[in-house]
């Protein structure tokens, strides 16, 4: 049975569960359940703290896990990223009161509060900066107001938490993070069950990012139309009863669908339809 670590709480938990559900895996019924078996797919899910997942996976007791790239790197565990999942996107940044820290060198001699000591210490060391790091569990933005630190290093998504605390970003992003699938470092080639799991998640990513587009076009404009909708491999072109026309079917990126529909219409295409993709294997 495949053993998979899934975040039990926080920003990663809901979207990870949704993605697994979309991939056809049975998820736990209640948020207090710590282990759930999906007998049909022969998978056992372990609902663990996101911060601990890379550590469990590196121990070799679990085959694979879902966590944040920042948490993976912070843990220092012998685990590596195998597939980015596109949710829980954030950047990891330094921030301070306006006017107190202009550039990275100003961090020398200061105290930095963070929940991600591993990432911060490595970043400072790489740049030869000598600053103290104090670990806090969360709500790090308040640490400056309360005098625990002069600088924080924390996850930023919309920037609302920083603004509310009257802080501004210092320097370049330390890291860009999103949810990722992790496995033990140096595992070699994945077994067939892990490969199948990854294919299912890749299928969800593609189904989320693409729509199927169908349209009719006069045969003489086919090449121009196909240039707009090349598809992943090659579009399907079918004859229509009216011999001057053909029907085209192709996958297009959801984000580009409206622009492509406008361009196709301009080219003379008609009956342009898009439909969602529920699942796929490429
Ligand atoms: N506001 C956010 N937007 C996007 N991703 C976030 C946000 N906050 C945290 N994350 C991401 O979620 C992961 C952290 O998960 P974790 O459950 O430890 O924190 P959390 O979502 O802040 O939950 P908690 O309430 O337990 O602190 C990290 O990968 C981080 O980048
Ligand atoms: O840029 P924003 O959109 O404001 O999001 C970033 C905030 O979200 C997370 O906090 P969370 O609410 O999880 O609280 P925590 O600090 O206790 O983890 C993170 O730690 C930041 O504080
Ligand atoms: Mg948090």
TrEMBL record:
Matches recorded under SUPFAM superfamilies: GlnB-like (SSF54913), Periplasmic binding protein-like II (SSF53850)
Enzyme kind, highest EC tier: transferase
BP GO annotations: L-histidine biosynthetic process
Keyword Acyltransferase carried by entry: no
Cofactor names: Mg(2+)
Transmembrane segments: none
NCBIfam families noted in UniProt: hisG, HisG_C-term
Protein's recorded name: ATP phosphoribosyltransferase
Native organism: Streptomyces cacaoi
